[in-house]
Amino acid sequence: MVQRYPSSGKLVEPERPPAPQAVLNAVKLMYLGAAISTASVIASLADIGAIKPALRREFPHDTAAQIDQAFKSLLIVAIISAGVGIGLWLWMARANGQGKNWARITSTVLFGIETLSLVASLRGPKTVVGLVFPILTWLVGLGAVWLLWRPESNAFFKPGPPIDPRGRGGPASVPPSVL
To answer: Is 126 helix (H, G, I), strand (E, B) or coil?
Structure first.
């Protein structure tokens, strides 16, 4: 909720209480999620030689050309999705740290998507890196979402009352005669 001041026409957000420890910890977990995602990309690229053998084991009837194509496709999708994932972790950390309720809701939806992604990753070709990082990412997301929805976090995500543009100390919606 924003309030227009008649003299300047500028939008001013109402004051928020300071972020409770639960939200601060959730933000730290989100930054950790970005770091884990970055480490996952680095580890995946370092362990790139294990992907083709894993594909061959999973799809023994595919030709070498099909395995090569699957390998290239997996690599492209992995790099793009990792970049998007890292960006989302950072964006959600910043927005939640600012008390944006839409970010808390978006983080929860993204956690739901990550849950589906974890289930899907358990079904495909598996490497140690391919199992450890999705599980770590999911656990960090679970912790962050749980902290964002704690009772002590709720007030931080609700805007305060509008500021009286007349400077009389009361909410803007109260008529001057009542103030």
So the answer is: coil
| Amino acid 3: pLDDT | 53
Do the domain assignments include residue 94? yes
Name the domain count of the chain.
Answer: 1
Task: Tell me the whole-structure pTM to 2 decimals.
Answer: 0.72
| Distant-in-sequence, close-in-space partners of 87: CB < 8 Å, separation ≥ 6 | none
What pLDDT score was predicted for residue 175? 46
Cα separation of 137 and 115, whole Å? 10
DSSP state of 173: T
pLDDT the model gives residue 87: 97
pLDDT, position 25: 98
Dist CA 47 CA 44 (whole Å): 5
Residue 43 lies in a domain: yes
Instruction: Tell me the helix, strand and coil percentages in the chain, rounded to 5.
Output: 65, 5, 30
- Nearest-angstrom CA–CA distance, 47 and 125: 14
Residue 134 scores a pLDDT above 80: yes
- The span from the CA of 168 to the CA of 179, in Å, is 7
Question: Cα separation of 14 and 42, whole Å?
Answer: 42
Average pLDDT, the chain: 83
Query: For residue 91, what are the domain limits?
Result: 20-157
